[in-house]
From TrEMBL:
The keyword Repeat does not apply. This is Sestrin 1. Belongs to the sestrin family. It comes from Strigops habroptila (Kakapo). It catalyses: a hydroperoxide + L-cysteinyl-[protein] = S-hydroxy-L-cysteinyl-[protein] + an alcohol. The keyword DNA damage does not apply. GO terms for biological process: cellular response to L-leucine; cellular response to leucine starvation; negative regulation of TORC1 signaling; positive regulation of macroautophagy; regulation of response to reactive oxygen species. Gene3D superfamilies: AhpD-like (1.20.1290.10). It comes from the Eukaryota. It is found in: Cytoplasm.
Amino acid sequence: IPEKETIQVGNEDAMMHALFADSFAALGRLDNVTLVMVFHPQYLESFLKTQHYLLQMDGPLPLHYRHYIGIMAAARHQCSYLVNLHVNDFLHVGGDPKWLNGLENAPQKLQNLGELNKMLAHRPWLITKEHIEQLLKTEENSWSLAELIHAVVLLTHYHSLASFTFGCGISPEIDCEGGHTFRPPSVSNYCMCDITNGYHGVDEIHSTESVCEVEALMEKMKQLQECRDEEEASQEEMATRFEREKRESMFVCSSEDEESAPARDVSRHFEDTSYGYKDFSRHGMHVPTFRVQDYSWEDHGYSLVNRLYPDVGQLLDEKFHIAYNLTYNTMAMHKDVDTSMLRRAIWNYIHCMFGIRYDDYDYGEINQLLDRSFKVYIKTVVCTPEKTTKRMYDSFWRQFEHSEKVHVNLLLVEARMQAELLYALRAITRYMT
Ligand SMILES: CC(C)C[C@H](N)C(=O)O
């Protein structure tokens, strides 16, 4: 997102100004994440409140542990932007610099968390109550339940924030490592000559085509709305549609996938390349189905978190709701549009990739509303954010505003965070009962 198309400091309204002040007070800087998220002030407010609570307020874990866990999580996706920020914070609160040489230099207790970190980030459906038991039951270095919940929320928060960082192409602030380079590290596959030539990835020739794209999408939404009332598919048919979409989502990948991303330095000590999403998606891994009817955030996850780490359940719940319900009733240049169907398709598509199924949702809608380039973008940002390119960002929804693409990212990160949490919390519940 070109800087001049973001909200300019000095031109913000009163609400945004208050948020800038909050963010500055909490982080000691006005970071680029805040400057991009402020497109959606109501969400930003809830995001900052939650993050502040997790990092700075009273809670089960000591401060330096919290930042270290943030580093571990961001490093899973080689997100040097977030790793750098938290390395600073970690040292600032008195963390031992030796730990930064790699997980094997950190206390055993944190090392034990490494496995859960990997699974949460790449294959959360494999988490069982035995994994939880291992963390809680080890003689020495054991985690308390409250500490574990705190850690799980931090891990999922930073996995998702890494998705946001790559999904929106956030570059480091000017005073940070990489912030003064010509080519920001979170924007890969972007040729400098394109920038100097004024080519920003959107072809002029394509622009008429993409105007029709918006209209076609709106037409589809209308049609779906109309035939919704007409035909009711059977239970079996609905289940089949879900399974089909889930299977297909395994094979969605971009042609750029083959190009290997340049190694990012900072996180090399934390990397474990033997474990990523990609290796499994290649061969079409089997993701079991998780029915929301049996375990949902509203009925189960929320209260478990609240019981063990008061207020955090509430904060997360609020944040999920804001992201899910946020709307300006616009579609690119069109106003007064009900976009709930489209936003729901995005949310449910992400949960579908994680095997999470809503019995009452017709997964046939997803194929009608989300085209291939959009699916590639979604899957990349959610599953392998480090592989996101500017080209992917530019090539979906070409007529939409940047603020709308950021809006999409809010849906992606919250849906991802909730999916990871659901699996971890279900395993914790199973361990406890
Ligand atoms: C993600 C976009 C489709 C959101 C749309 N601009 C709305 O306000 O609802």
